[in-house]
UniProtKB/TrEMBL annotation:
Belongs to the DHNA family. NCBIfam families: folB (TIGR00525), folB_dom (TIGR00526). GO terms for molecular function: dihydroneopterin aldolase activity. It comes from Truepera radiovictrix (strain DSM 17093 / CIP 108686 / LMG 22925 / RQ-24). The keyword NAD does not apply. Catalyzes the conversion of 7,8-dihydroneopterin to 6-hydroxymethyl-7,8-dihydropterin. One of its GO terms (cellular component) is cytoplasm. Pfam families: FolB (PF02152). Transmembrane segments: none annotated. Residues 4-114 form the Dihydroneopterin aldolase/epimerase domain. This is 7,8-dihydroneopterin aldolase. Pathway: Cofactor biosynthesis; tetrahydrofolate biosynthesis; 2-amino-4-hydroxy-6-hydroxymethyl-7,8-dihydropteridine diphosphate from 7,8-dihydroneopterin triphosphate: step 3/4. Gene3D superfamilies: 3.30.1130.10.
C-alpha cells in the first residue's frame, strides 16, 4: 500500500496524569502515516490533503487535554479515518520525549494502527 508520511509534528500541549503536566505543559511530537492508493493523477482531489491532516492533528493535540498519550493517539487515528475517506489505514505515534520518568531515556511513545473496516 502506498503512503504519505508526516513526521515530527511538534506541539506544546498539556497532556499527562500529573497536575504539573496540566499546568506547565510539555513538547509532544506526532508522526502520522497515511496508507491509501496513490495514482499518477496530479490532482489534490485524488489524494489526501496533508495540510488538512496537519490541522486536524494540531487541533487534537493542542485543543483537549488527555491523561494518556495512548488515548490521544487513538483519537487522532479515529478522526483521520473519519475525515478522509480515501484512507485505508493510519498509523499514529505520539511521542512524549520529556515524560516524567526517574531515569535517562531518549523517548516514550504510543503507537496505534487503525484500518477502515
Amino acid at each position: 500500500m502506498d503512503r504519505i508520511v508526516l513526521a515530527g509534528l511538534e506541539f506544546h500541549a498539556h497532556h499527562g496524569v500529573f497536575a504539573a503536566e496540566g499546568e506547565l505543559g510539555a513538547r509532544f511530537v506526532v508522526d502520522v502515516e497515511l496508507f491509501l492508493p496513490l495514482s499518477r493523477t496530479d490532482d489534490l482531489a485524488a489524494t489526501v490533503d496533508y495540510g488538512a491532516v496537519y490541522a486536524l492533528v494540531r487541533a487534537r493535540v493542542t485543543g483537549e487535554r488527555f491523561a494518556l498519550i495512548e488515548a490521544l493517539a487513538v483519537d487522532i487515528a479515529t478522526r483521520l479515518l473519519a475525515a478522509h475517506p480515501p484512507l485505508r489505514r493510519v498509523l499514529v505515534r505520539v511521542h512524549k520525549p520529556h515524560a516524567p520518568l526517574p531515569g535517562v531515556f531518549r523517548d516514550v511513545f504510543a503507537e496505534v494502527v487503525r484500518e477502515r473496516s
